[in-house]
Write a structure and sequence with these properties.
alpha+beta; Uridine Diphospho-n-acetylenolpyruvylglucosamine Reductase, domain 2; Uridine Diphospho-n-acetylenolpyruvylglucosamine Reductase, domain 1; five-stranded antiparallel sheet; four-stranded mixed sheet; 20 strands; about 30% helix; binds flavin-adenine dinucleotide
Length: about 325
């Protein structure tokens, strides 16, 4: 499906725009699941000021969706109407170490690189980011983290290390948010949904570089042992309902015997879905909905999607 090309009309409203506008750009290659249709308009801002200028001049009725590393997303087969913001490493990928065991990172910096920079600088507490394949922007929106209380050394959550974030509002205003503004909860942030994060500061603590590198390596080992790391997936499909593990509910409901088109749940980690070659976003979403029905019928528990489903069906 292609969308009407609005790129010339939008460009005409913004003579001083420095970033790049592209009409009908395929999003699938940018996502972990490698499925989904195009963005009506893909915008790559040059820097935060350029993003603010763009949002200020973009007609208010046009929807905007920021894309991180798309490791927690199903883009539907019909693509995304309106604007998708795709950051470039230049302008949004910088990572700097600051006084007092702090790290400042751009929204498009990979979580893993933040953890590596922290290790090099002798900053502990950010090791959990080493195992999360997203970006800082995605970590802020999702309150990314891991928590099972079995090994605190390799666990943590974005909110525990958060100091402040910079964001641009839909009206084009650059704002700073503190911990209270972020309203972090389990795998989400209650900060206004239209904010586009551009940068964050995290607080760690003193820990010898070799120790932090060693913990990062243990994070990796743990991932490779217990999770899918070499297939097309989006991590945990559903949030863990209070008092339950989604993977156990899915397994016990017979979810591992289900396959829709080229999509099925992982036998290694039943809450991870896998997209095989030829899978469509429709296959994947239908599988998820079928799993929710099975679990509801078997246990009475309603699973809530953790993965974001974005855009329109084919
Ligand atoms: C193999 C695998 C393992 C995973 N393990 C974990 C895990 O242990 N813990 C965990 O929490 N997650 C895990 N995930 C899920 C995912 O990596 C996280 O949710 C991550 O934080 C998403 O970041 P992203 O940059 O990919 O965001 P995306 O998937 O691109 O986006 C996710 C949401 O964040 C929003 N967003 C992205 N960037 C910005 C921005 N700059 N401003 C505003 N909103 C933005 C998007 O609009 C969307 O709503 C895993 C995923 C995979 C594939």
């Amino acid at each position: 499906m292609t969308h009407p090309d609005i790129s010339a009309k939008i460009a005409a409203l913004m003579p001083e725009l420095r970033g790049r506008l592209l009409a009908n750009q395929s999003l699938a290659p940018m996502t972990w699941l490698r499925v989904g249709g195009p963005a009506q308009l893909l915008f790559t801002p040059a820097d935060t000021e350029d993003l603010a200028y763009f949002l200020k001049n973009l007609p208010a009725e046009i929807p905007v969706m920021p894309l991180g590393l798309a490791s927690n997303m199903i883009i539907r087969d019909g693509g995304v109407t309106g604007v998708v913001i795709r950051f470039a490493p230049r302008g949004f990928g910088q990572i700097t170490v600051e006084e007092g065991y702090r790290i400042r990172a751009g929204a498009f910096a990979a979580d893993r690189k933040v953890a590596m920079a922290a290790a090099d600088a002798g900053i502990g507490g950010l090791e959990f980011l080493f195992g999360i394949p997203g970006s800082v922007g995605g970590a802020l929106r999702m309150n990314a983290g891991t928590r099972s209380n079995t090994n605190p050394e390799i666990e943590g959550e974005t909110r525990e290390r958060f100091v402040e974030a910079t964001a641009v509002t839909r009206a084009g205003e650059i704002v700073t948010l503190g911990l209270d503004d972020m309203k972090f909860v389990y795998r989400s942030s209650g900060a206004p949904a239209d904010l586009v994060f551009t940068e964050a500061v995290f607080q760690g603590f003193a820990r010898a570089p070799e120790e932090v590198h060693a913990i990062n390596a243990r994070v990796q080992e743990h991932r490779e042992r217990d999770q899918e790391t070499k297939v097309r997936t989006a991590g945990s499909t559903f949030k863990n309902p209070p008092g339950h593990s989604s993977w156990r509910l899915i397994r016990d409901a017979g979810g591992l015997d289900l396959r829709i088109g080229q999509a099925e749940m992982s036998r290694k980690h039943a809450n991870f879905l896998i997209a095989h070659d030829g899978a469509t976003a429709h296959d994947i979403e239908m599988l998820g909905e079928e799993i929710r029905s099975l679990v509801k019928a078997k246990s009475g528990v309603e699973l809530e999607w953790e993965v974001k489903r974005i855009g329109v069906p084919a």
